[in-house]
Design a protein that fits this description.
Rossmann fold, 2 domains, 9-stranded mixed β-sheet, 6-stranded parallel β-sheet, 17 strands
């Protein structure tokens, strides 16, 4: 096929606004349908962004113009919706995490391979100008071979602002599976695949209270660790220490520091697409500030990059295999936390090349 790739959005919740705003503005994709269990909500989002079709998931999967399904459902539904899309002959872009367990994640990727289709997965923040600028500097040897890293995300938790935060404190959520993919995906891009993890952590409270929206004041159960720390060891050498917490009154997020023999790079927030990289180089008193160079798009960039890869036959950068490796590492951290011992990460992945600096989401290339 040629021309813009037809896109259908499954899930018309909070995050769909950003995706729809961006994807309806990219010339190389055409959003043709919005689906949700709540068809009224799907209709509202479709009308808001000028999308011609709306309705149920079944109607979306039967739509002949939908080539790529963008799966924005809650984590527990990611694999179910992804498999249904593949069985309908559609490629899949899914929000993170790819799956909640290795078996279903592997099933999703194997089904795609069997059908000659593609699965790619958030986060696509690693394709943003901020982190791509940092990566190009590190890949070019500005700090030497990366040796160690420190990554921190500490917050009181999302229940104060999210109107329906329960899923963020259940299987598939918590700071590890909700926030960890941003940080671990960036570290894998820079250090290569993870070979071993050692985790620790716990849960500060068994219940939380919704702080905003129509259900404010509602108490709900917490079933996952809300503070997780881990030591990561990488296949080609080097290590990283990471802290992910929903238990800290001190808000400290977006911190990633990479050290090498020639200096240290302080990277932009892995949950953003922009931001400055600071290079603290040996022998220099003041850090060198690297302004982000590249595009200014945000969420939806990965789905666009996948769409262009589908048309060209090139491999996509935010691949399902990359997401599976990060999932494998996160599950290994959970197992290490529970069992009190280090866990080997069985999967590996080939690291994609950096985006060209002139890659432009706003260009019409198809």
């Amino acid at each position: 096929m040629s021309g813009p790739v037809g896109v259908g959005i499954v899930g018309a919740g909070v995050i769909s606004d950003t995706y729809l705003e961006n994807l309806t503005g990219f010339p190389d994709v055409r959003v043709v349908f919005v689906a949700d269990l709540d068809v009224t909500r799907a209709a509202t989002q479709a009308a808001k962004y000028g999308v011609p079709g709306h309705g149920s998931v079944a109607e979306l999967l039967a739509h002949p113009d939908v080539e790529l399904v963008v799966n924005l459902t809650v984590p527990v539904a990611h694999v179910e919706v992804g498999l249904a899309a593949l069985d309908a002959g559609k490629h899949v872009w899914t929000e993170k995490p790819l799956a909640l367990d290795r078996q279903s994640g592997r099933k999703l990727l194997d089904r795609a391979k069997e059908k000659g289709l593609r699965v790619a997965c958030a986060p696509d923040t690693v394709l943003g100008a901020g982190l791509q600028t940092a990566r190009r500097a590190i890949d070019s040897g500005r700090i030497g071979e990366p040796l160690t890293a420190l990554a921190l995300f500490q917050s009181p938790g999302p229940e104060s602002w999210h109107p329906s935060p329960e899923f963020l404190f259940q299987a598939g959520g918590g700071p590890l599976l909700d926030i960890g993919p941003y940080y671990l995906t960036e570290l894998v891009q820079l250090f290569g695949p993870i070979r071993k993890v050692t985790g620790a952590g716990g849960r500060a409270r068994d219940t939380r209270v919704i702080g905003s929206g129509p259900r404010a004041g509602t108490e709900f159960a917490v079933t996952v660790p809300t503070t997780v720390t881990a030591l990561l060891e990488f296949e080609r050498g080097g290590s990283a220490q990471v802290v992910f917490s929903f238990d800290s009154a001190l808000l400290r997020t977006g911190f990633v520091e990479i050290a090498g023999p020639l200096g240290t790079a302080v990277l932009p927030d892995p949950n953003r697409f922009d931001g400055v990289t600071a290079l603290h180089l040996s022998g220099q008193q003041d850090p060198e500030q690297l302004e982000p160079r590249g595009h200014h798009a945000s969420r939806g960039t990965g789905a666009l990059e996948l769409a262009r890869a589908i048309r060209s036959g090139a491999p996509e950068r935010a691949s399902g295999e990359l997401a599976y490796h990060v999932l494998d590492a996160m599950l290994a951290i959970e197992e290490s936390l529970a069992g009190g011992q280090s866990i080997d990460v069985e999967s590996t992945v080939e690291i994609p090349s950096a985006l060209p600096e002139d890659w432009d989401p706003g260009a019409k290339t198809l």
